[in-house]
Structure formats: C-alpha cells, structure tokens
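Standup notes
- HV: blocked on the assembly model, inputs below
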Amino acid sequence: MSDRWRSRCLVALGLAIATNAAAQQAPVLERRLQRLDTLQRAATDALVRAERARIEPLDTLKAGSLVVVARPADAALVSQATIVAWGKLDTLYGDAAQRIAAAPLLFFRQGHPIQNVPPAVKQLQHVMASEDATVADVAFQLVRAASVSIGQATDTALTNWLGPMLLPDATPSVERSHVYVELVTAPATAVRHCHAGAVESCAAALGTVTGDRALVWYDATERRAVVRQNQETAQHLGLAAPSHACVEQESDAACLEVLHALPWFEPPLSTEARQSLVRVAVSLGGRRAFARLAASAGRPLSQRLGIAASVPLDSLVHNWRELVIAARPHPVTLSARFAWAAVGWGVVFGLLALRSTRWR
Amino acid sequence: MFRMILFTQWKWSRLILLPAVIAAFALPVFSVQVVGTPNQSGWEARRILSAVQTWGIAYPLLATGIALAIAMTAWGPDHRGRHVYALSLPVPRWNYALQRFGAGIVLLIAPALALWIGAALAATTAQIPAGLHAYPVALAARFTLALAVAYAVFFAITAGTTRTAGYVLATLGGIVLIQIFAASVGIEIQLLPFVSDRLLLWPGPFEIFSGRWMLIDV
C-alpha cells in the first residue's frame, strides 16, 4: 500500500472514529444537562423552602384603622395596646385617623429587630418598645408613630405652625396650665394683652393672623431683646450692622430689618399653646374637625382653624382663652391635707422621742 | 419648770438662733433681688420665676439645718452630763422630754417669724409684674411646718442612744449600699426610689419638703 493510500485510510478512520464519538457524546451530554437541570431546580426549591422557613411568622393586629404587625409572642400585648392607642387617636383625630390604615406599623422589642421578612413588611414604619414594656408603654409608642404618620400627611404650613406631631395623650388641663404660665411670662406685648383679655392679641400671639409679625407680637424693647437673642443668626445672614444698630444704638428700624430677614420667626406662644388651641378647635368641630383642618391647605390659618372648629376664629380663641385662664396652676402647694400630715408626723416623731431607749 | 428649760435651751442655742433668724429673714429678701430692676420689660416675669425657683431649694435646706441644730443643742448638755440632772428631777421622764421638745418648738418660732416678716417685706417692696403674685403667708406657713417636722425627727433621733442613731444611719446607709450593689451586678431593683417616694410623697413624713417653694408665682 502506498503512502498516499495509507494516509487516506488513516484520515477516513479518524473521521469515522470522531463522527462516532460525537454521535455517542451528544446524548450523554444531554442526559448530563438534564440531570444538572433537575439538580438546579431541586436546589432552587430547597433554597426557597429554606428562605420561607427563615422568614419570621408575623401577626397582624387591628383596632379601628390602626394596623400593627408584630411577632406572635408579642401579639397579646400589642393587641391590647393597639386598642388603647386607637381609642386615643380616634378621640383626637376623628375621621382623619382613618388615613393611618394605609400605613401599618411594624412592632418589635428593643434589641430584637425583625429582619427576615419580605421587603414590603420591612419597609413599614418601625415601632420599638423595651423588653419589659407594658401595655401603656406600647400604646404610647404606637400613638406617637401613628401621630407622626398623620402629621406627615398634612401640609407643611400646618406642620410648621403646629409642630411635627399633635399627640392625643396630652392631658388638656395640664397643657393649659403650662399655657397659663406662658401667658403670664412670655415676653411679648401681644401675650400680655391676651392675658388681659384682648382676644385679637391672643390670635396674634398664637401666630394665626397675618401682617407684620414683628410689629404685632412685640413692642420696640422686646424686638431689641429678640434681636439680641438672634445676633449670631443675624451675623450669618450678613446683618451684623443692623443687628449692632438695633442692640447698641436702639434703632427700631434696624431691629425690624433684622427680624424681617430671619428665616423663621416663632410666635411668642409656644407649640404647646398652639396645640392646645387645635385641641379646642377639634373638640368644638366634632369628628371631622381635624380632617377639615388638614383638607383646607392653602388658606390662611385663621380661616382653617375656623373651618375646623365650625365657629369663627374669634369665638374659638375666646373659648381657648377662657379654658387657659381657668387652668391657672395652684402656686404654693400648702393644702389642709399637707398641713395636717406635717402636724401628724411631728407628733409621731415627738412621741418616739418621749419613749427614748436611753432611759429604759 | 418649763420656763427654766426654755431659758436654758435659749442660752445653749442663742448663738445658733441668731444667724438662723438672720438667714430666714434674708432668704426671701434676697430671692426677689432680681425683681423691680430699672430694666422693666416683658422678659422680667420669666426671669423672676426662674430666680425665685432657684432660691426655692434654700427654704427646705434652711428649715432642715435650723431644726437639726436646735434638736442637737436641746439634748447636747444632757448627753454630756449623762442625764444625771434629768433623772434627778421629780418628774416622769416623758414629761421632761416633752418639755424639752416644747421648748425647742417655742425657739423655732423665731426663725419662722423672721421668714414670714422677710417674705412679707420682700413681697410688698418688689415690683411684681402683672400676672404674678406673691405668697408670703403660704410660704411662711410651709416653712414653719417643715421646721416642726424636721425638728421632731432630729429630736427623736438625738433623744435616743448613740446606738439608736447608729441603727437609723445604718438602715439608710444599707439601703444605699444595696442599691449600689444591685446596680453593679445588673439586678434591677428600685429600692432607693421606692423608699424616697414613700418618704417624700403623700402620706410620707417629708412631703412638706417636696414641691414648689415659690415666694412669687403665677
């Protein structure tokens, strides 16, 4: 056989072997691929099962529109707290409290955050309480979280004036007694006139009327005092010269220039006083009062409060002032009970001295 | 006999009573120094309340200090004389102790009166802004009752033996130590707050010392 034939035979043999081998390897590979696919599916299923097993079971607890998600171990406590919290929220916010149904809360104990939950649950607003929290403690936290949620749904103008959250669990009489002290001590002409009985001055001091606030709230001396307190801010705003002229040279025009330039100028009566006014408005306006207040965004505050309370602003502020004056705190606590208790203890200790062990 | 006991107690304690009377008179007067400055403005009301509140802590402290000093001087000479004089008197022991107690109470009238006069003077001379009021009578009455309670407590302790006083101090120290030890080993017990609440809140013996001591308030 010639070399040429030998080469041809070898090539043919090689091709035959290669073709045969390829023909044999394809089914094997297919089978292997199928097995691999099966294994992959089994692994995926196992992973899903493992993930599911890791996800914590949670209970959903409801009272009114308040929805709280919590661990089953905390369910009994949270359930009671939810009922308490809803009662408070419903009393203050009325129909407006229903909007919290759209924002469920996720409750957990301090140091035990809930981690293995679906992302949708993880994104809920978190509410935390200590390990030994009672029903009252949990209700307190739920009320705060829900109040923030309701506050976030209201417009910026109202939030700026009212503060970030209006809490339903404040005791109105205590709050009003604090406001009474403010009425007496707040360093503003408008507040003094309010205490003396001028309802329009009360409205001004509460920041519910429009106009030049620096002129409505304070007299010249008080404006100077306010500028003195805000001198650092004035310097940051590039108002060092008018600030100096106001404080040192007693220029009222310079004081007004500084006060008009301040980015935020708080009303003389505090947030607590303003919140107490809203509480009165809500109590006068009924269940839809807060909803009306929130829905009237864009209008002046004086109108909004009137709409919420369903009475003119003058009547509302008059009512508020009467309640605040009636809540005047008792200054020096010396009641008959105090006195008799002191006398009684004096006698008890005196008798102990008469039976001294020294002479027995 | 009561007059003699009163006289001797006066002799022993007059050097204490004199500064006590001056302090009781001066305290309310000093507490209103910030009131009625030429710079009258709306800011003053807040400043006055703050200053009066700061001074308020001094009233119960002064009452306690005076009562302690008077109670100790009431029994001091008897302790030094080993009670020979007291035991030689033809009166029951309880009667003698009662007269000592009564003499101390009579002596305490002086600082109580001084505080009332000082408070009344301070209230009438200070230019109090509208909305604020002075309460000299209530403050003086409270000071008097605090004096009486503190005096009774210290009189009872000093009337006893050193051992009795030691027991009282050891009990108080023990409570503090238990609280500190419990806190250091991580046990949550509120022994000290519990005891202080029982003493300072109704119907505890020292309730008269707690709360606001304000000569000027809303």
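- HV (later): unblocked. The helical segments of chain B are 2-31, 43-56, 58-80, 84-88, 93-125, 136-159, 162-184, 191-200. Chain B touches chain A through 48 residues (CB under 8 Å).
- Next: hand off to the docking folks.
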